Amino acid sequence: MFHHLHHWLIGNPLPTKMLHGERLDRVRALAALSPDALSSIAYANQEIYLGLVVAGSAGLALSLPIAGAIGVLLLILTLSYSQTIQAYPRGGGSYTVASENLGKWPGLIAAAALLIDYVLTAAVSLTAGVAALASAFPDLWPYRVEVALVLLFVITVTNLRGLREAGTLISIPVYSFVGAYLVMIGVGIIKALVDGLGSVDEANIASHATESITLFLVLHTFSSGCTALTGVEAISNGVGIFKPPETRHARQVMVVMAAVMGLLLFGTIALTQFFGVTAHENETILSALTREIFGRTVPYYVVSLSTLAILVVAANTSFVGFPGVSSLIAQDGYMPRQLTSLGDRLVFSNGIFSLTACVAALIIIFGGDSHALIPLFAVGVFLAFTLSQTGMVVHWMRVRGPHWHLKAAINGLGAITTAVTLVVVAASKFLDGAWIIMLLIPMVVYFFHKVHEHYQEIRPQLSLEGVPYPPPPVLPLRVVVPVSGMHRGTLRAIQFAQSISSEVTAVYIELDETRTEKFKADFEKWSGHINLVIIPSPYRSILGPLLHFLEAFDREQGDRQPAVLVLPEFIPGSWWQHLLHNQTAWLIKLAVIYQRRRHGGGRIVVDVPFHLRG
Amino acid sequence: MFHHLHHWLIGNPLPTKMLHGERLDRVRALAALSPDALSSIAYANQEIYLGLVVAGSAGLALSLPIAGAIGVLLLILTLSYSQTIQAYPRGGGSYTVASENLGKWPGLIAAAALLIDYVLTAAVSLTAGVAALASAFPDLWPYRVEVALVLLFVITVTNLRGLREAGTLISIPVYSFVGAYLVMIGVGIIKALVDGLGSVDEANIASHATESITLFLVLHTFSSGCTALTGVEAISNGVGIFKPPETRHARQVMVVMAAVMGLLLFGTIALTQFFGVTAHENETILSALTREIFGRTVPYYVVSLSTLAILVVAANTSFVGFPGVSSLIAQDGYMPRQLTSLGDRLVFSNGIFSLTACVAALIIIFGGDSHALIPLFAVGVFLAFTLSQTGMVVHWMRVRGPHWHLKAAINGLGAITTAVTLVVVAASKFLDGAWIIMLLIPMVVYFFHKVHEHYQEIRPQLSLEGVPYPPPPVLPLRVVVPVSGMHRGTLRAIQFAQSISSEVTAVYIELDETRTEKFKADFEKWSGHINLVIIPSPYRSILGPLLHFLEAFDREQGDRQPAVLVLPEFIPGSWWQHLLHNQTAWLIKLAVIYQRRRHGGGRIVVDVPFHLRG
Q1: Interchain contact, B609 vs A597, CB within 8 Å
Q2: DSSP of A59-105, one letter per residue?
Q3: What are the chain B neighbours of A603 within 8 Å (beta carbons)?
Q4: At how many degrees (to 10) do helices A166-195 and A26-33 cross?
Q5: B610 touches chain A (CB under 8 A)
Q6: Could you say which of B496, B525, B610 has the minimum Cβ distance to residue A474?
């Protein structure tokens, strides 16, 4: 049944030879790489509004200047990453750039920041998308967590199937979103020209004005707004998917994307301010703006649904990025190796499962509220930006080439600006949740380190170097068979033991004295020629006395390897019947195999199953 | 760490020879066997009040007649069970009496009813106890579920430790309860004589009167009140713990207990009615009565806490009864055998765990509200009563002896009365929850039947009868070793395989073609003399192709037993490092061992562990 469900949801397995990269033209590449960046204006807008509305209309008047500052940052990042595209035509993610140019530790820090960002991108995008949906359909507002989890499930399954024709498919929501917003901004401008400007509803806002404008408030809002910049680096990571000439195409697309981002961000914020739009408690500011422009008509729903769609697609990009970067890090030996293995459908299934688990946890813990998640977000993003840009400066100093001074200066400007922003974000958001990330990053880096250490340590232990050839022969074996009574199952185990060794010892743990005589007689009859040891167990434990006996038995043997344990085991016909038998064989196996041993050795355990009918 | 916690909570293991029954004198035996019966007046009182208050003061006026009817039932049950004590001096629980006299199926039905009753007794007693506590300390009212679960945890741990000196310890809460209630009733009577009788606050009650007095209402309330009779049978189950002459002592204690029960039930209900006491929403009627008599003074708190204490002790009796009866049923082969095994501290730990899980589930599902649980309760109790009494009638007809006609008549009266009550309870409470139990009992009986069937079926399969002596020798073995690469771990497995068989085949599942040549060269160098099979796996699955190969390999062998599988396995130094290795060996073991096989056979699997340092 599980098999059928799996087949239906995930599809047939795909052979390895189908693994190939599809190259995309510029239009589809923009759709594939920009959703994260474009969609982030949805929550950035919301954050700027929420950050300023507490200071009333005077606060809200600051939204344009703040958007201006973010625009300047966007310009600098676009220039900087255009250079990364040039320098790393096969794709230059922060992890690659930082570890190649700055060394192991900065690389690992960038890797930790990146992985955390992917998780947060997915969680924030999903919850912001659900907020857009629930603004249009207020009945859904109390079920935001559930709706977000359903979408997460759909995204997970889609990614486990593998997105073969992703480029074309993703174009629809991305261009719908861009189109819908451009139309809305256009209509908004016409409306502003025809009707004249509105003004903030002072009475409504005044009642909300609980704080005065302070430097902290401005920096805090700026930090929140910086989440608009998340995803800007995606194109430089994905240069490899462009049709040649990759570098030129990627840079062109980068510029177009930045222009669209800037236009949407400025346009929506300017219109919000011109019309003096404010939002209800259970509505996003973008929904309120759209309502102001279109009323609750079909275009309003088109904008809302296209916002949801692009945010879902943005969440989806994490499901490509996270497993990809994990696999890269795992190949370098800093994460568990399973993350490098391709699943049934040629996707890194383990990475997808890990991401889904983390995102679901965040959605549940933070109650499906993107506003609560945002303070965790920008720290990792700007840390990765800073490390990547610093890495680029070192890159130009190493590689040199024409105009390298200028190039290093541009990336240097990027590094300094993002570093300053990082400090502002970390300081102003520290108590809101940035501290979680500042604790988490070192923990993740430490985990990378321990994983690497483990893989380094086991290599020489497993190496055949130094092993004499031919390898020393295995010494004659001693075998121990624990028996709880004489029946076909135990008899089969004893016979197998005899077939592999001439030194077989049966062990009987005496739980109930009254049964011992009967057992002895049975044993005598069927296996009398074998050595039998009876161990009384006054505390009715089987495991303890058996392990004790095995240790004493091994000590007798001196240098020889530990005695082989042959375990008779029943296998009932159906699963529930396992509950009707003591799972002693299973417990013994666990205890014996995981018992600490000296390097290399370890007790060999043989399972002799006896299948029951019915 | 787990070991230390276990040690600290549960204590040192006790040797089997310490298992002995402590005999109790009559005073302590009453304390040990009566808490369930005595404490049930707490919730029965509450149920009668809640059943009648909906019909206003006219309804409440019916509480004494209803209590009278319950008193008559109590008298009949006392007479009937006195006879059970006489007939079964070693303890005659419903399961024993019904299965000995009526046969297998009635016995199993009684067993199912009994087990369900034990669970409900614990759940109802705990929640009623918490209600008494929360009536005295209203701040606890919203946390009734949590408080009940904490008490459940304490009871569980106490019982896992084993209650050695239970008789003496339990005397304190039981006699405090009896003493406190007798004093309260005495003071109440004096107060009534001095101050005159009160009257129901008509205005207050009238507003609650939402129903008129109907036959259904009366029967419904009677059914709820019948929960007062739960636990009456406990003394007849426990005749064995009395000091000799057991039968006489047990009958004396039975009469005393019934007299005390009757006195407390009548006394409290009569006073409630005389004073016209009504209860708040978040208070029990007994708490309201106590407040009426004592005010919120120290005696009030003494009564409340002694109510809590005896209810906790009553819940505790389930923790002795349930594991005991389970073990009895398991000995007869109708429940999993593990329930018969004594734990570290000479208690049936598995039974205790099962009970705790069921009780916790009930408390959580029913929101810690004893009133919601009550409708489930009486059906099982009266079913067990009826079966037990009917069994006694058959017993007397079988055994005869002096006055057997009279004895059969008394038990017959008991059987008829309890059967009629059963029908009334089942019908009037059907929709409130009794249907759950009426569904559950046949399901539990079916489970007993399937368990028994399984144990019956496997006996001949395991029996050595018909096996020729000496048993046929094991044929020469063929061995298969799956290898993922050449290293010390796989080399050790191959060497072991060679030491037990001359026909060893190594199998390599090819996941990545580019690595095959390197592997072949390594294998050639270290184990070139062994047969090597390379299986391409285009879908990157290891398990599928391996199982496929093994089946084909076995078919070649014809009649010989399936090839032995020797699995190399790494064992990392610490638990978290398991996450850093594919758990392939473990998956293969599971798949191979649990694969359906013909009876008896089954593939032998050998684990060759290789322990890693660090």
Answers
A1: yes
A2: HHTTHHHHHHHHHHHHHHHHHHHHHHHHH-TT---HHHHHHHHH-HH
A3: 609
A4: 80
A5: yes
A6: B496
B508 - beta bridge partners?
B534
**Contact yes or no for A580 and B451 at CB 8 A:** yes
What are the DSSP calls for B302-332, one per residue? HHHHHHHHHHHHHHHHHHHHHHHHHHHHHHT
Residues 6 or more apart in contact with residue B512 via CB below 8 angstroms: A16
- Number of A/B CB contacts below 8 angstroms equals 212
DSSP string for residues in A458-524 = HHHHH--TT--SSPPPPPPPEEEEE-SS-SHHHHHHHHHHHHH-SEEEEEEEES-GGGHHHHHHHHH
> Per-residue pLDDT tens for B493-511?
999 999 899 999 999 999 8
Residues 8-67 of B with CB under 8 A from A: 13-17
Q: Does B339 touch chain A (CB under 8 A)?
A: no
B432 reaches A (C-beta below 8 A): no
Kindly report, residue by residue over B144-172, the tens digit of the pLDDT.
999 999 999 999 988 888 765 556 778 88
> What domains are defined for chain A?
2-455 (1.20.1740.10), 478-611 (3.40.50.620)
Give the residue from B486, B478, B489, B538 showing the smallest Cα distance to B508.
Answer: B486
Q: Give residue A236's pLDDT.
A: 87
Residue A463 and residue B488: Cβ atoms within 8 Å?
Answer: yes
Closest listed residue to residue B277, CA positions, set B212, B371, B184? B184
Single-letter code of the amino acid located at B105 = W
3-state secondary structure of B334: coil
Question: Is pLDDT at A38 greater than 90 in this prediction?
Answer: yes
The pTM score is 0.76
Of B469, B599, B606, the CB nearest to A613: B599
- Give the three-state DSSP class for B377: helix
Cα B189 from chain centroid? 41
Picking from B14, B474, B600, the nearest residue to A496 by CB comes out as B474
- Lookup: tokens for A355: 């991401």
- A490 to A215, A482, B246: CA distances (angstroms): 80, 9, 46
Q: Is B601 an interface residue toward A (CB < 8 Å)? A: yes
Distance of residue B241 Cα from the nearest chain A Cα, in angstroms: 24
For chain A, say whether B462 makes contact (Cβ under 8 Å).
yes
Q: State pLDDT tens for residues A272-306.
A: 988 888 888 888 999 999 999 999 999 999 999 99
A234-258 confidence digits (pLDDT tens) = 888 888 888 888 899 999 999 999 9
C-alpha–C-alpha distance, residues A213 and B482, integer Å: 70
Residue environment code for A305-317, b if the CB has 16+ CB neighbours within 10 A, otherwise e: bbbbbbbbbbbbb
Say if A590 is an interface residue toward chain B (CB within 8 Å): no
CB atoms within 10 A of CB A7: 12
The label of the residue with tokens 């000590």 reads A555
Write down the ipTM of this complex: 0.78
Q: What percent of chain B has pLDDT over 90?
A: 52
Identity (one letter) of the amino acid at B419?
A
Angle separating helix axes A166-195 and A35-53, nearest 10 degrees: 40
Which residues in chain B are closer than 8 Å to A15, comparing Cβ atoms? 538-539
Residues 475-494 in B contacting A (C-alpha not used; CB under 8 Å): 477, 486-489, 491-492
Q: CA torsion angle for A546, A549, A555, A559 (degrees, to 10)?
A: -40
Q: Which tokens belong to A567?
A: 């375990």
Q: Which of A464, A471, A611 sits opposite B600 (nearest CB)?
A: A611
